[in-house]
Design a protein that fits this description.
Chain lengths: 355, 108
C-alpha cells in the first residue's frame, strides 16, 4: 500500500501541515490552524489516524484538540485539569503521545505544570496520573528556562506498562505497571564523576518503537543510551561538538541508530561551522556530522520537539528551526534540503506516515 | 436588560456570536448567563478551579470591571458588558502580567 507523509509543524503562530507523496520530493503547505496560538506539539496516531495538537493559547486558556479526519477539522477536548484542591492549575500541554498498540484508546499528555495525564477515550477526556503527582520528590522539581513541564513520554515497544517520563527539571521516572507506581531513574555510568545521576534537566527521551528496552536520551549537557535490561544510563556524549541540545530522533528500524542536533550551551544556537545533524549507528559510541545541503555557517536552532522521522523503509528525517525553515533528508541524514521556509518560529515537527 | 458584547477571540469561542442579552444583577451573574447561552465559553472564561483566566478584560460600559468590584460589580438595566482579549504579548508568563492598561476604547 502506498505511503504518504504529513509533517505536523507546530509554530509560535499556529499549526501547519507539510504534505508529500511517497517520493517525499514535492511538498505542499496547509494551514495555519489555531493561530495565533503557539503549538508546542502535535502528533499523529497511526493506530486510528487521529491527530492531536497542543493549542497553547493565551486567550481563553490552552486547549488540547484532536482531529479524526487527518487535520481537516479539529475538536476541542475536555482539557487536562488538576483535581479540586490541587495546588496547581493546568497551563499548557508540552507533549502528546499516542499509547501502545495493545491499549488502543489510550493517549498520554505531558503538561506544564509538570504532570502526566492519561486519556482512555482517544483524547476526548483526560485524567491526572496521581501516582506520579504524589511522588514525594515532586517538591524537588523546579522550572527550567522554558518552564516546568513533563515533555517526554517513552512507551516500551513490547510492554505498554513499561514507560519512562522526562521532566524539566525533575529527571526521569519509570513505571512498570502502567503508571500505578513510579521510581526515579537517573543513575548513569561513564559520565561526569562529580555526580552519580543524569541531572534533572531532561531535554528529550525517546523509546525505540520496535525494540523493547532501547532508549535514547538528550539531557541538558549530555546524551545517554540504554540497552535492553539495563537500569542505568550510559554516557554517550563524546564525539559531539557540544554538550547541549534539544532535538533528537531514533531510527525506527535500527535500534542502534539515532540523530541529534547539538547547540552551543551559552548561545542556544548551532556552533561554528553551523547547523548540523549528528548521527550514531553504534548506540552513541561514535557520532558522524551530517550537514550536506544545510546552510553553511548558519547558527540555527531546533527545539525539543523540532526533529522527527517517518516510518518509510528508507527513513526520512526532518527538523524545523527557529527561523521558520523545515529541512528533510531522504537518505537518513547523508544529504538535506530545505523543503519550506518563512514559517513562524518552528516549535515542533512530527512526521506522520500515513498508509 | 444587560447587553454582553463579545470581542475578538471571544466571538470565535462562542461560535461567532457577537452579542448576548440577559438579565443579571451582578457581573458574576452575567458571566453565568453567558455560559448558559454559550457553554463553550465555560472553560474559556475560567480555569479548572473556577478562577477567571488571565488575559481576559471585562468592562462595564467604559469602566474596567476590576475597579467596580470585579465579579461582584452590580449592574443596572441598560448596562453593556464587554468581554475582551486583554492586550498582551511578548515572552512573559501570566504571573508577570501586572495590569492591562487601556486609556480609551471605542467599541463599534
Amino acid at each position: 500500500m502506498t505511503k504518504t507523509v504529513t509533517l505536523l509543524v507546530g509554530t509560535k503562530k499556529g499549526l501547519f501541515q507539510l504534505k508529500s507523496d511517497a517520493d517525499r520530493k514535492k511538498w505542499a503547505l496547509e494551514g495555519p490552524y489555531g493561530n495565533p496560538a503557539p503549538i508546542h506539539h502535535a502528533s499523529f496516531d497511526p493506530r486510528d489516524q487521529s491527530m492531536y495538537a497542543a493549542i497553547n493559547s493565551t486567550w481563553g486558556g490552552s486547549r488540547l484538540e484532536y482531529s479524526r479526519d487527518l487535520g481537516k477539522t479539529w475538536t476541542v477536548s475536555k482539557n487536562p485539569a488538576f483535581p479540586a484542591g490541587a495546588d496547581r492549575t493546568f497551563y499548557q500541554t508540552w507533549h502528546i503521545e499516542p499509547g501502545h498498540p495493545k491499549t488502543p484508546n489510550v493517549v498520554w499528555a505531558g503538561t506544564e505544570p509538570a504532570a502526566l495525564f492519561k486519556s482512555e477515550d482517544r483524547g476526548e477526556t483526560w485524567s491526572l496520573n496521581t501516582a506520579l503527582d504524589d511522588q514525594p520528590s515532586r517538591k524537588e522539581w523546579v522550572p527550567g528556562f522554558g518552564g516546568m513541564g513533563l515533555h517526554s513520554i517513552a512507551i516500551d515497544a513490547a510492554d505498554p506498562k513499561f514507560m519512562q517520563v522526562g521532566i524539566s527539571v525533575g529527571g526521569v521516572y519509570t513505571t512498570k505497571d502502567g503508571g500505578a507506581s513510579w521510581t526515579r531513574d537517573n543513575a548513569q555510568k561513564g559520565g561526569p564523576a562529580d555526580r552519580p545521576d543524569v541531572f534533572g534537566c531532561i531535554h528529550k527521551l525517546l523509546a525505540h518503537p520496535k525494540t523493547s528496552g532501547v532508549r535514547f536520551m538528550r539531557v541538558h549537557l549530555e546524551v545517554y543510551w540504554r540497552d535492553p535490561g539495563e537500569t542505568t544510563w550510559t554516557f554517550r556524549t563524546p564525539g559531539l561538538p557540544s554538550n547541549f541540545g534539544f532535538a533528537a530522533a531514533i531510527h525506527p528500524h535500527d535500534a542502534k541508530t539515532a540523530w541529534c542536533i547539538p547547540l552551543d550551551d551559552a548561545k542556544r544556537t548551532a556552533k561554528e561551522p553551523g547547523i548540523a545533524v549528528y548521527k550514531t549507528t553504534d548506540r552513541g559510541a561514535t557520532w558522524t556530522r551530517q550537514d550536506a545541503g544545510l546552510p553553511k555557517g548558519a547558527p540555527l536552532e531546533s527545539l525539543r520537539e523540532g526533529m522527527d522521522n517517518d516510518d518509510f523503509d528508507d527513513v526520512g528525517v526532518y527538523f524545523g528551526t527557529a527561523n521558520g525553515d523545515v529541512y528533510a533528508s531522504r537518505d537518513e541524514g547523508k544529504s538535506w534540503e530545505r523543503i519550506w521556509q518563512y514559517l513562524p518560529y518552528v516549535t515542533s515537527v512530527h512526521a506522520a506516515t500515513i498508509v | 436588560m444587560i447587553t454582553v458584547l463579545l470581542h475578538g477571540a471571544w466571538r470565535n469561542f462562542a461560535g461567532g456570536a457577537r452579542e448576548v442579552r440577559l438579565d443579571a444583577p451582578t457581573l458574576r451573574g452575567v458571566l453565568e448567563g453567558l455560559v448558559a447561552a454559550h457553554p463553550s465559553l465555560r472553560e474559556r472564561l475560567r480555569d479548572e478551579h473556577g478562577k477567571l483566566r488571565p488575559h481576559l478584560a471585562l468592562f462595564v460600559n467604559d469602566e474596567d470591571a476590576r475597579l467596580l468590584g470585579g465579579e461582584d460589580a452590580t449592574l443596572k438595566d441598560g448596562d453593556i458588558v464587554h468581554v475582551i482579549p486583554a492586550l498582551s504579548g511578548g515572552n512573559i508568563e501570566p504571573s508577570d502580567v501586572r495590569a492591562v492598561v487601556i486609556t480609551r476604547v471605542v467599541f463599534s
